[in-house]
Amino acid sequence: MNKEEMMLRKRLIDLSNQSYQRDIVTFSDFLNLNELHILHTTPKELFPSGYYAFGGYDLAERQMIAFQPDALLYEYEYPIQAVVIRPLNVRFAEELSHRDYLGSVMNLGVERSKFGDIVVKDGEAIIFVCEEIADYIIHNLIRIKHTAVQCVRKDGRKDITYTPVFTELKGTVPSVRLDTILSVAFPMSRSKLTAYITAGKVFVNGKLITSNGYRLEKGNLISVRGLGRISYEGILSETKKGRYYVSVRKYI
User: Fold this and answer.
1) Euclidean distance between CA atoms 26 and 69, whole angstroms
2) Is 41 exposed, middle or buried (0-12, 13-18, 19+ CB in 10 A)?
């Protein structure tokens, strides 16, 4: 673990201690997959308050962590705002990519930890941000490339209903291992899939997995950097030869 990773672990432990000592809920910024892995691999006894993750919508990749004392009974809301970015004039708008939206927000001087996933859909984008920077983005993000845009604040819990789009894929595998399940969603050679796993590019439920033989469980969410995300939906049936007919969801 390098110095930055050690500092992150210390910061998360400090947030948990603050939560426990002051009997309040404390929140982190948005964590990426590597940072979530550090959280999940930190011994639980170092966190006096339990933690919960949420990124603004179900299946969000970048997530904010809430540390909550066990004795705390009241409900709380994550300090997350959803900002919808749409062109001022659809007729003259360019086709903007995730990279375009990301670059424009970063060019405003916003730290990457202050905003989570960017969902591009139907000619506009939804960006989930820390509450504290919502106004700044709304007032300052007025153009992406050559397209004039407007930003509208939404309550991520009430006004935004986003369900990730996916394709259901099915295939037959010899075992429910990480590498074989990935082969159902990503049709490439086993050596190429192995390279992704051993290079530290595959995460299961936010935890870095570097073993090809890692056994998956139904409902596991798998993120592969450079390829996308899938969820393992389970075994549908077993063949006479002892192979498994499985289903996965590949998110678009």
Assistant:
1) 10
2) exposed
The helix (H) or strand (E) run that includes residue 248 is strand 244-251
Q: How far apart are CA 65 and CA 223, in angstroms?
A: 19
Angle, CA of 238, 241 and 247, to the nearest 5° = 30
Query: pTM here?
Result: 0.85
Tokens representing 129?
């941000």
CA distance 42 to 28: 15
The DSSP secondary-structure symbol of 216 reads: P
Q: Which two tokens stand for residue 66?
A: 């809430």
Helix (H), strand (E), coil (C) string for 115-158? EEEEEEECCEEEEEEEHHHHHHHHHHCCEECCEEEEEEEECCCC
Residue 1 DSSP symbol:
-
Read off the pLDDT of residues 187-207 as tens digits, 9 standing for 90 and up: 888 889 999 999 999 999 989
Of 249, 188, 187, nearest to 223 (Cα)? 249
**Residue 85 φ then ψ, to 5°:** -110, 120
Strands (E), 156-204: 166-173, 202-204
**Tokens standing for residue 55:** 């990124």
Q: Using CB atoms within 10 Å of the CB of residue 74, give its burial: 0 to 12 exposed, 13 to 18 middle, 19+ buried.
A: exposed
47-58 CB burial, b ≥16 within 10 A, e <16: bebebebbbbbe
Tens of pLDDT, residue by residue over 165-184, are 899 999 999 999 999 999 99
